[in-house]
Structure formats: structure tokens, C-alpha cells
Fold this protein.
Amino acid sequence: MADQTDKNQALDSVRGDIDALTAATDKVELELANKRNELMLPIYEKRRAVIEKIPNFWTSVFMNNMTLTQIIEPADIPALEHLTDLWVKWDSKDARAYDLTFTFSENPYFSNKELVKKVTFNGEEQVTTPTEIKWKEGKDLTIKDNKRKKGEDNVSDSFFSIFQDDDVTLLDYISNELFAEAIHIYANGGDDDDDFSDEGSVDLDDEDDEDEEDELPAKKKGKK
């Protein structure tokens, strides 16, 4: 029994060392992400000025991205054609917190000029709350049949459901991957996401990447 106790204590000691190193590296990765966002900001602003002169830039980026095309429904496309800007404003002290802003031109679907998803970090996990879309009469893309009341059996898998969803997986993907690689996606069309250089992104959750890649397209099935 004493021998087993010694082994358990030794294992606990090693586990403690691993946990301490993991916490230290997590801190370094967060600091790196914060610094990267600070340095990239003027470059993104320069890119934004160029993009303003390119019609349907962000619509093309969305439709050229393999992950998003598995989530975007055909009925979403006419609404997304009014997307004029996508912007991420990260918390300067914590890259896990950010505002993701979608800007739209006047359109027949909703009256919002901007749809903003705010993501915060509460010390343990990222949190987001629903964003109200002011749908015009009969134009709610998140409802299968606008003539019926919205209920569990009348909810569409629309891309716009992310604004009611409390899951941040897709939001993180758009903010940290798609936003950084927008020019590449626009210029190279249907290239696989795995081909991206990731020059502008720092992943704060590497160990879950493989699982999340598989999960992303399925997220729309579980929206609330």
C-alpha cells in the first residue's frame, strides 16, 4: 500500500508540473495573441480601405470558404450579398474577448445596419448573448415558414441563426481565421481551409483544432 501511495504521489507531482507549464504557455500564447492583434490593427485598417472599393468582397469571401458554404443556406445568399464590411475589435488585454461586426447595406430582409456579436471571457470560458435582428415582415430567414409562429419545428438552419446562438465556435473561426485570411480566400476561391498560411492568426486553443474543424459544419444543427 505504501508503494502504491508513493507512486500516486509521484504521478501527482508530475501532473502538477504539467499543469504549471500548461498555464505558463497559455499565458504566453495569450500575450502573443494580444500583441499580434495590436500590430495587425493598422494593416487591417489599410486592408479595409482597399476592400471598400471592391464590390461584394466579403460576400465572395464567405462563399469561397468551404467551412461557411456548409453552413450558409441558399436562402441566405441574397441577404449576404448586402454584406459590405466585416470587422473584429479585440479586447486589448484579452484576445478571447471581441466584438464581431457585420455591416450591411439597405436590404429587404432586416433594418439593422450592423449586427454585432459580443464575446466576453469570464475567467473560465467565452460567453456570448443573442443579438436581435430586426427582420422585416415575412423575411425572417431563421424561420422555415414565415406564415407560422416560430417554434422548435419551424426553425431554419440559416447562417443568421448564429446571432441567436450562444456557441462561440463559429464566431471564433470567423474572427481568428476567416478575418485574417480574407484576401487569400478572395483571391484563391475554393482552396481548402487547410491550405491557408495562417500568417495573421494565433490559435489560443490548438489542442482542440482537429475536433473543431469537424464540428463547425454541424453547429448549425444545434443552434438555439
In short: The first helix runs from residue 2 to 51. The two ends are 51 Å apart (CA to CA). DSSP finds seven helices and four strands in the chain. The chain has one domain: 2-222.
